[in-house]
Amino acid sequence: IFFYSIQKIIDTSINMFFRTKPKIIFASDLFSYQKYKNKFKTSNIFKINGADFQNYLNLKKKGIGNQKKYITYLDTAFDENFDYQLRRFKYMNLSPFNFWKKINFFLDKMKSLYPHKSIMIAAHPNRFKNNAPSKYKSNYNQSAILVGKSDFVITTYSLSAAYAVLFDKPLILIYSNSFNDQIFERSASIDFYKKNLGVKSINIDKINSISKKNLKNLRKYSYSKKKYKKYKDYYLGFPNIESQGGSWSKIYKCLSNLDFRL
After folding, report:
1. Do 54 and 137 touch, CB atoms closer than 8 A?
2. Are 30 and 53 in contact (CB under 8 A)?
3. DSSP class of residue 180?
4. Single pTM value for the model
5. How far apart are CA 235 and CA 166, in angstroms?
6. pLDDT digit string (tens) for 24-79?
């Protein structure tokens, strides 16, 4: 233990000595901007549009966002998680087959409540082997467009939920009792969304015990205009969701005007 502690101190000291502070930082949201500004006081910090925000702006210019023709499920491909597949030891009490069976049952319920809406699955890019195990179509590289054309959005903990916020679409979160058997990130992510967006979650293990009225109310109570705006201004961009300039064009312009000589 003694030698381990000494080695730890030596390693930490070496890392601190050779660690360099970034000369420039690009921040795509107020949360990151404030964090880096406090941590690296001598660095040049530039505001830029994040990839999701820029994509949203491009689609808004094309008139996408006002439609309500779809109900979109944002896939997370947990059943084909790339990092998990690399592990030598695989342990998962959460059965992908059973979980997708419940997802499909829930989507069928939503379809029965909204018969004039089409159910669409925005497939995760890590779904490298097969389409999602569902009768509903898997659509690749279409998450933003599908959300923009949706009445409301369903997901577990997808990062693409940001599009639901940007387009002001109600967001319903689903989970299972065995959700954390593989990793603990899932429930924490859902709790973060619920707290900061004011949206609702539903345990899909208990679908049969939920009344039709309560299922119908999910959409109504899974949107908060006030919290959505606050989330946009802090986590997805800057106050009043103003454009800071296209990501790559802004980066190129900033880098071209800086002197990198030591």
Report:
1. no
2. no
3. G
4. 0.85
5. 11
6. 899 999 999 999 999 988 888 999 999 999 999 999 999 999 899 999 999 988 76
| Alpha-carbon span 153 to 155, nearest angstrom | 7
Residue whose pair of structure tokens reads 């808004």 in the numeric block = 60
End-to-end CA distance of the chain: 42
Residue type at 105?
Answer: F
How far is it, in rounded angstroms, from Cα 123 to Cα 143? 8
**CA 140/CA 123 separation, integer angstroms:** 5
Helix (H) or strand (E) holding 197: helix 185-197
* pLDDT tens string 29-39: 999 999 999 99
- Residue 157 neighbours by CB under 8 Å, 6+ apart: 76, 173, 185, 186, 189, 190, 193
Residue 64 and residue 168 in contact, taking contact as beta carbons nearer than 8 Å: no
Token reading at 209 = 């015990």
Residue 18 structure tokens: 């050779």
Neighbours of 120 (CB within 10 A): 25
